[in-house]
Amino acid sequence: MPLYDPLYDPQGRVHSFCHAVAGKWHLTGVTLSAAGSLKWYFDEFGPTPKKYPGATLIQKDMTC
User: How many CA atoms lie within 13 A of 33 on its CB side?
Assistant: First the structure.
């Protein structure tokens, strides 16, 4: 259900975004944890020398 006005949550639990319908807004709750999810996936399922002898591990502590 679109909103007529943007809402502000001071605790940052939900975010207001422009709706596809002009002049309307929608609220969404998001989890900004993509990097943590990717690290967990790599740690759980990524290549390791034990699983794949001869595999080369990616350096995990790379910085931008």
Answer: 8
The residue whose two tokens read 């207001």 is 16
Q: What is the largest CA-CA distance in the chain?
A: 59
- C-alpha 9/C-alpha 26 separation (Å) is 13
Give this prediction's pTM.
0.42
Give the C-alpha separation, 13 to 7, whole Å.
Answer: 11
Residue 15 per-residue DSSP state: E
Name the burial class of residue 6, with classes exposed (0-12), middle (13-18) and buried (19+) by CB atoms within 10 angstroms of its CB.
middle
Q: What is the pLDDT of residues 18-41, one digit of tens each?
A: 888 888 999 888 776 778 888 888
